[in-house]
Amino acid sequence: MESTSQTSSKNQPIAAVLLSRAHDPEETKRILTEKIQQRPLFLCPSSPPPSDARAARRREREKKRLSRKKTLKPKPLSANERRKLGLYDVPRSGQRYALFEPLHQLWLGYIREILGNEIHTGGEGAASKLTSADFHGAEVEVVRSGCVSRVGLKGIVIKDSRFTFEVVTRRNQRKLVPKEGTVFRIEVPLGGVPTATVEEGQSDEKQQQQQTEAEQPKMIFEVHGEQFQFRSADRANKKFRSHFSKIL
Prior knowledge:
SH3 type barrels; RNase_P/MRP_Rpp29_sf; Rpp29/RNP1; 2 domains; rod-shaped; alpha+beta; RNase_P/MRP_Rpp29-subunit; ribonuclease P RNA binding; Ribonuclease P protein subunit; 43% helix
């Protein structure tokens, strides 16, 4: 009998022998069938990665970057791109003095508001406020310049760049005046806000308006262009120190 039991235990798998020691034969058979013999075996791939695994990872990163880029805001244009597109250029049809006269009237109200009561007294307080002001729309006149032919040039500033003033004259001409070596004169009427410009057909009323504006008291400023060689946006946050100018 002992030899028969030993022979039968040898023919059985080790799992069945171990289960038979703890369970009865029927329970042992059920556990062996359901939990061991019929249990699914999940295999993990053990094959080596493909030869272009680095390129595949790079493509995956590029795909994620593109998907993230679509959700972000578009990149703003650089200064060179805006210059190539001509965003700063004024078309020839728009180089008319009458088009910029309303801008000049707005600038007069803007500069009066900035200067306040110091527009009547002047001094260092008015000078410090004037240095940080924006000159787009100001009517400037060249009173001194290294180039004699520019003296007397007068027009409305349509572009205030770092080194130049771009103006439109009363003859509807666009002039580019460098700031270096040039002194500009700016006149600001002290009275109320001048009346709006009239149409071209009403020449008599326009002449009367110009006469009344000429009779108004004015505060006259002289701006040394060499001290304004900054962009208007940078000049607003810059602190200027008072010093003697080399230009007399």
